[in-house]
Every structure is written in C-alpha cells, then in structure tokens.
Amino acid sequence: MQYLSVAEAESLIELLSLQFPGFCERIELPNPTFEGRVSSALKIRAGQEERRAGVLLIGGQHAREWGSTDILLFFAQALLDAAVHSNSLPFGGFTLQGTEVHQMLEKIELIVFPVVNPDGKHYSQTSDAQSLWRKNRGPTSDPNQVGTDLNRNYDWLWDTTAQLQAGASAVAVGLPDPSTEIYRGTAPFSEPETRNVKHLLDTHPQIRFFVDVHCFHGFLMHPWGDDDTQTTDPSMSFTYEVYDAARGALGDTAYREYMSPGDLARHQDLVHRMGLALTQSRGTVYTEGPEATVMYQMSGSAADYAFSRHLADRTSPKIDAFTIEWGLAADFQPPPAQMPPIQREVSAALTALCLAAKDMPFVETDPDPVLFGNVAVGGGRSATVTVHNVSRGTVTLENISAAGPGYQTPPPHTRTLAKDASEQIQVMFSPGQEGPAEGALRFDARFPRTGFADNVEVRLEGGSCTAKRGDCLAPVFPARSGAAAALIVLRCKFLLALLVLFGGSECDKAKLRFRIAHCLEGNGDPCLPLLP
Amino acid sequence: MWIIRARVPGDEALRRLADIVRGDVVSSRRVGKEFVAVLVVHDDAEMEKLSASGAALEILSDSRTRPDPRQYVSSENRYAAEVERLKKSGPGGGKA
Question: Which 8-state DSSP code applies to residue A337?
C-alpha cells in the first residue's frame, strides 16, 4: 500500500462515481484553491426515500495528515462494494452484511470530502523537508508568509483577540500572526478550502452529523473546544459578547460553554458507539470526550462551527459534530503498511455513526418559537405546540417538559405518535415576576425499537410588564423573510392606510409601523414601549 | 524535524514552549499541576530554545532517523487509466 497522491485521490473519487452510478455522485466544489485545484466530494445513497439524515465526513484539512484522505476513501469504497456486491464489510472484528449496508444507505445520505486542502497536501507530499507542512498554500497578510491553518478559519470564535481572553494554557487557538502554524486567516472563511466545507453544509440542509478526521493521538471528540462544557446555564454561550472577557480558561467557573443536556448526552452516546465499534475492530481504545479537555483548546474549528450553526442561527438545522484523531503512534505519516488496520478501525467507528444516523427520528414542530406576549404577573396564558411525526415509523415522545421561569406543561409527559400523525402539547405561561421570560419546551423523540433518541427543543418567549392604562407596547412576533415577510409588510401597510384614512389610534398605527420596520428581525421583547 | 513530548510545571511555561514552536502543538493536557504537551519542532534553532527552556523533553519521532516519507506516496496515478476507460464506455459502464 502507498498513500494516495492528491491527483490520485481525485481520480478515485471520479472512479467510484463512474463504477457505482446508481449509488454515488461526484460533487464539484465551487471554490478553486489558490493553486487552481478544483476539489470534489462524493455523495453516496441508495433508494428513493427523500427524508434521511445526512452524514458529512471531511478529511485532509491539515496537509501533513495524509492518511485521513485514504481512510475516508477506503471507507466509501468498502460501503459501496458491500452494498452493491453483497460483501460483508472488511473492518476486522466489526462487521456488517452487505444487505445491512444497503439498508443503511437507503436511510442516510453520506457525503465524503476527503481532500479539503489539496494544495497543502501536494506541497507536503512533494517538497524537500516539508512533509510536516500543516496549513494551506494561500497568501497571508504578510507577503513573506504562506498558509492559513484551515481548522482555525471557520466562523466560530474566529476572532480570538476579541472573543477569547484565553488562559495561558490555551496554546492552540487561532492567532493573527501569519508566521505561526495556527494562523487563523484574514477573516472567517477567508480561505476557499473552508468555504467549500461551508458550501456543503449550506447546500445540504439534511446534514445531521459531521465528522472531521485528523491524526494523531487516538481521540474521539465532540464539542466544545474553547472551554469546559456545562449544561445548566444557557446564557453562558459563545453567542453572548458579555462573556468575551471570561471565555477560554479551563478549570474555572467564570465561563464554561453551554450545551443542552440532551445534546451533550447524545454526543457522548454517539462518541461511545463509535469507540465501541473501533475497539471491536482490533482492540484499540481511543480516548473519548470534549475537545478542550481531551486534546487542547481551539477556536475557529470545523466541528465546533458545524455544531454551533444552529445556535448562532435558529433557522439552521442542528448538526452533531465530532473530531477523530486516528492512530496511536506519534507519527503523522505512519509507514503505509501500518495503515490498513487503522483504516479498518476508523471505518468501523464511522459505520457505527452511520447506523445511528439511520435510526434518527424526524418530527416537525409548529410554531417555533411560541410567543406568549405580555402576560400580567399572577395571570396566565396557554398555547399549543403541534408535533408532527414525519419519520418512517412510530415515534415516542419522552420526557416532555417546559423549562424557564413561569413555564409548565401538563401531563402526559410521554406520548406515542404513529407515522404521519400529529399531537398537540399544551404549554402554560404564568409569570411570577416582571420582565422578559425565555424558556423551552423539550422532549426526546425516539424510535421505540432502536433506543436512539433525538432531543427536540421549541423556544418559548413571553414576559410580563407593568403597563399602565394607555401604555403602548410593541407587538411580539417572529422574524420572517422572503415572500412571507413581503406579504406581512404589504398587509400591515394596507391596514395602516385604513387606520390613517379612518382615524385609528396612534398606538395601533405605531404598532403597525413597528411591525413593518422590524418584520425581518422579529421582536421578542414584550415590554418595548412605542409611545410615551 | 521532531515530534516531542514536553512536561512543564505550569501554564506560563507551556505558553513559552508553544511560542517557540510557533503554535504547532499536537496536544496539551493538565496532569496535576503540570502540563504535558506534544509539540512539532521544525528546526535546530527551535530545538535549542526548547532544550534551554528547562522543560523535560522526550523525543517521540525524529525525521533524521526515518525514511523520507515522500517514498510512501504513490508515484503513479493508479486509477487514471480505469477512469478513462469507464468514461469512454459511457454511462452504465461501471460495475453497478
């Protein structure tokens, strides 16, 4: 065995798409590299089912980690061979029959992007004494320096100078100095290679799982990378600037990055499933846990960015994200003879993730967020959330609960939802004190036969103000965009014209003007005064 | 080039080592009050500075004692001919 060159990896991608045309499609990525290389990914799926969980696997961000590309293409080739030719998977002690692989590919969409950084990889593989080159080959802010660390260039805490007052132990977060090996680039997504990864995430909203493959150390990790992880204080989040001065010191309580209990439990569960499969392959044990404590603290990284997308933008789908650091030897390029067992064990871990993805239930909720508006202290208002099961089978909704000040949901806290059926869950808001109140309706959606659960969260927004008679408060409404926003604005303008024509109240007119002006961003503040 | 494991007494010392290797840290973790870091050392000058830092160093890999890894890379494109053949045979010329 020998490592794939860049050109050879691209040929193998093309070859697989030609050999397995009914299962495999080559995706040409839109951003050529600085040296003009056009990258490509493989999309693998079987059958016609539309709704399925996407799994995006990327490798080769760091130029010197040659084996990541080979692992991902070995994995893709093995799955296709098994599914099409009914072979069992050759992953050592972890195996799956060809029919099982086919069934798995009928229920997921796998996207493999194995050479994210082709310029850097080519440089590392062909230049004198540069085999440990890490970055890409693009220009930097210093004309004498070449290359950005791609895994510090994503839009998640990219601006370490402002957002991460890192403790002295944070020695691997992105830096603005181009002479360093962890140069973050001139801006988030300044590099075409990271824009290609973002392109895949943006154009495939079904992607539900993401794995970034690196070496070495034998780690199976999940977010977060900037600080310790906690599950109790949602306000302590990368989205809040107020914590910029405290974020980034391990072991303290001034700041720890929030992950919801359900998200953390699911990430831990999936990492453990991957670890068990990997060990089953040939007995190797990788260390499991969050990036910051298992490996080091980081910023601008691909996996954290992938998971953070739904938190930075609630309209973005949630993506569970992982980083694998394959290999136990201190070697970025082990002799090729050592690679086959590593390929098999990492492929076993990736298969375990795909098997979990296959069993991902899908439910839709409406509305989200639920807007309760202004409710007087001591008063109450109720709303219903409709949950629609769009999965391929019966789903149970478990641990139904409402969190947040003044929110509650009555029993039953477990429900069963047949395929295509809907259920209504009632939520009550009874504020005990003045001010805005944010909360969440939470439940676990689970296929009864698989035991794998997805945690669902619907935002609850309301508040209480002491409004004197005659106070004019802004309406509470969700953000809208596109045609929906245009229709609302048109309707509001029509109503406003009627009020002007027929002498409506100044407060009603102010509310309509406010709605027109803020249609795109919405308003969740029930106490915002419009007129003195 | 070397890959080394360094053991230092605290985070300030760890920071100094990371600066010497221009941030090329493979991993770092706290062990009690100490930090254990794996670093990539790029040249003799960096190695001398690390040695002078007083940190306990252990060499894990030395590029001078191993083959040039470029020989591990395929020198020919093993798939190009098959790609061309399948392209010429048109859609459906593949195995599936």
Answer: G
